[in-house]
Structure formats: C-alpha cells, structure tokens
Amino acid sequence: MPKKETTSQKAIQRQVAWAVLGLVFLLLLPVFARYSDYVLQVFTHALLLATLAWAWNILGVSGSISLGHAAFFGAGAYTSAILSLDLGLSPWATIPLGGVLAAGIAAIMGLFCLRLRGAYFALATLAFVEIPKVITDNWDGLTRGSLGLVGLPGLPSLRLGSYHLDVSGSLVGSYYFVLSYGLVLLVLVTLMFRSNLGLAFQAIREEEIAAEAVGIEVQRYRLLSLLLSAFFTGITGACYGHLIRYLEPGLVYGLHFSAIPMIFAICGGRFTILGPALAALVLYPVDQFIFHPLLPAGHEFLYGAVIILAILFVPSGVWGQLRKGHFVSIKTGSIE
Amino acid sequence: MWTTAVVSGITLGSFYTLIALGFALIFGVTHTFNLAHGELLVLAGYVAYWLWKTSGVSLLFTFPAAVLVTLAVCLLLQRVFSRLSEPLELNSIVMSFGAAILLQNGMLFCFSGDYRLIRVPTFNQGLHFNTLYLSYGQLTLLALSLLVTALLYLLMRHTYLGKALRATIQDREAAALAGINVGGMGVLAFAIGAMLIGLAGPLYGCVHYLYPTAGLQATLLAITITIFAGVGRVRGLIVGGWILGLAESCAVVLLGASWREVVGAVILLTLLALRPQGILERKQ
What we know:
The complex is a heterodimer of chains A (336) and B (284). Chain A has 336 residues and is mainly α.
C-alpha cells in the first residue's frame, strides 16, 4: 500500500527530526550552561536516570513491571566500587563486571519471580531488594557495611585521537561521558526493539499464549529481558558510583532507584523508545529547578503525583499518547 | 533466651496480624493492593507522636485523632482507586506506590526525617515470671492487638454486615446479584481498614522508630501475611502473623537483629513461588 508507506516514512522523518533536535540541544547544553555548574550537574544526573529508565524498560516492554531495580543498581555500583578500590582495577574494566554481577543477581531473582505475572511479579521484585541490601549492609569485611564506601576512583580520562575528555575531572567531561553512554544505550535499545528479540518481547506482553503458540519460548525470553535489563541497570549503577564517588547501602538500594525508572518509563510511555528518557530529562530538572528550592524537604512528592496522574489519565504515557496516530509504533511497526 | 524469643515473637506476631487485617480486608473486597498501607501506619504513628509531644496527652487519647486522619486519607485513596482501569491489581500497585511516595514526602515535610519514638515510661517496666520477663509495653501490644482482631472476627462472622463483606470477598458478581452494594462494600472496607491502621499506628510509634520511609517494612509484612492466609480469613491471618513474628524473633536470636528484614522478604518470595497463581484463586 503506497499511501500508507508514505505516511509511515513521514512519521519516521518527523520522529528522526525531533530526535536530532533533542540531540543538538543536549550536545550544546554545556555551552549554554557554562556559567552554572548546577545546571550541568542536574542534566548529567537526568541523563543517567534516562539510561536507568531505558534499562528498566527492556523488561517493561515484555510486560513485567519491576519495583525492585534498585537491587541491580546497587549490586552494579558496589561490585565496580569494590573491585576498583580493593584490587586497583581500572573503572573501565570494573563497570562491565558490575553489569555482569547485576545480571547474576537477576538470574537468582528470576528463580523466584519468573513464574509470577503482573501484580505478583511486582510484589516479588519489591520484596527481593531487601536481600542484596541487607547482605551488603552486613558484609562489613567486604562492603564496609552501613559506613559506606568513600573515595571511589573517578573515571579516567578518555583519549580519542588527539581529543582528550577529562571524564571525572570536569563537569563537562562527566556530562559528555553520560551523554555518550546514553546514546549507545539508545542505539542498542532501538536495535533491540526493532529486532526479532524485541518483537518477541512485545508478543509476550500482548498475549503470552499466542506468543507461545507461534513458537516463542516465553520463559526463556522473559529471563533474557530480565537479564539484559539488570545488566544495563548494573552498568548505570556502576557509573553512578564512580561519578558520585561515595556509596552507601541505603542510598543505592533505596526505594528511590526502584521507583524512579519505573515512574519515568510509565509516565513517558512504556511502549515507546524515546518516552522513558524524555520523562527523565523533563521531570528530573523540573524537580530540581522548581520543586527543590520551594520544598527542600519533600520535593520528591512530584514523582508520586505524576505516576498517579499517569496511571489514571494517560496509562500509555505522555509520549505514547502524543505519538498515537502520528508516529511509528514499535508495537506494530506501523501507524497506530 | 528462647522463651523470651517465643514470647516476643507471639507479641510481635499479634501486632503484625493487626497491621495485616486492614490490608487483607481492602484487598479482599476491592481487589486492589494498597502499597501505601505501611505509610498510612507510619502517618498514624506520627499523628500520635505529634499530639503526645505537643500537648502531652496520654497515649489513649491519640487513638481517635490517628483514626480520623487515616480515615480521611483512606477515603480519599478509595476515590482514586475506584477510578482505576483493568488490570486492577497491577494498576493499583503502581498507583499506590505513587501514593506511598506522596505520603513519604508529605511526612518528611511535616515531621522531618529525624527518628521519633513515643516513649511511655511504664511500658519499660514489667512482670517477672521465673526466667520470663514481660514488659507492660508487650502486654499492651498483645492485649490490644488480640482485642481488635477479635472484634473484627465478631464483625465478620456474626453480623449481617460481615456476611455481606464476606460474600463480596468470595464472589463479587454473585454478591451483586444477591443485592449487595459491592461499591459500597469497597468504601466500607477502606473505612474499616483505615480504622484498623489508625489503631495500630500509635502502637507502632511506641515499639518502632518513626521515620518517613519506615512504612515499606510494614507493607511487606502485611502482604506476606495476607498471601499466607488468603483473603477473608481472620484466623489464618493470626496464624500467619504469629509464624512471621516467631520466624523474625528466631532469626534475631540466631543471626542477629540486622538480618531480621531478610526473613520477611524470603518468606514472602517463597510464598509467592509456591502460589504463583495468586491469592484470589482458590483450590478447586
């Protein structure tokens, strides 16, 4: 059908145009924000949260809602921190290992949780976080317990030919590092969602029995989406540790890092590629620039309010809602 | 040592039952998971703490105020819950998770993040029976928890209203066909649940430190006991509360107090793994 194809191409062009515009804004942001370290710090953290939301959504797109991603975030952060502190390894080597351990934790979680669906899966993930948290809290010899880890090595500078990016030494360096990690993740997530793997995840979400009937091994794919999601969450956690250079069980295993990616992904649009990151890049700065000065204690009520409103009024997320009828759906590969 | 562990396990367990009763009732009647349950409990504790600290009234007089506050919040929550679309269980989890964050931040704003405890001097004194020691605090906790549980049992088993509630829990459509106002039962379940939380909150403030994020533990144990017992079974909830209380106090003796939280989580995960089809489906 030629007519449909042209609309679809137009829609793709429009989506690409928006993405390019957003990318230019993010690339130039340090130029505008040169006089305010705070603005740059906020957007660096917002980008990190965007990667967290994408990582969460790898599981979300296959239909499972996790309330326990802090387990992977904390495990990644602690693994990378301990390996680089105690063994003196370079953070570039320990960050992927953080992701691997997070995936290992996810495999254990999968033993408990993957037989469960919907609400019960969510409850199990919520309860599961306590296990790595309490272990980290009590394994004083390795993790220094509730004292936390201080003085984590920063990220070494990167050299690309003659260009030199001072990752941990300067705020601009940290910003561009997190931005490039975000872009790599965006490419990976896009490729994944458009591949057979992504189609299988979405088929499982839409109708498990039908997916099984066309030959998708449902449990294997659900495990795979959990492992991939945990792996990238662990990597983000590890990067967070080396950027903040301080870890504490209550901080990285806290409810915050379980709630935030879920809220961003659902508010932005669980079934879209850009939605989760857009929500992070809008909501976190709004929280920090507007509500934090107004309400130093309790400004995070914003996240509670937006998720309630989203579930009530835009269950497919703001970006998912906007995109209906205009953009290409990752769900069907055609116009919704 | 072990007798002390058993006694404190039963005491704590009875209190856990009291915490779980409201959760189980709301879930059974409306099929919504209220993850803000623990936050409501902590809120009731804060209200009692605030009254006790500022006006110096005895603990007994803080209960009505706590009940009123939780009643108001719960009825508001019920209005929002009733607008949820399918899948109800999952949407209610996500939404009440948001409500929990709202309440946590509200409490952080009103009461700051400092740890608070309602100190009732007489609660630390107690009775000695040979090696066994029972503090008045434990006795009060045990007596009040069992009293309220017994009252709820009487309400559910021996009144017409209780019959209607149980019918709604067992089969909503059949209950509606029999002329029971199922929506009204939902409001009622939230109201009774709020009263139970309002009664438990001030007690919670006496035995646990209050801080804005303390609620998650209470929510998890309410879920654990509810999943163990199934819905609409007050006696099952008591047994579940005792088992959890005993397991926790044994874990404290064997492993140390810092591992207590894991016990509840592992029990919940095991229960979920054993009953993957959920609480509502019953064996045919």
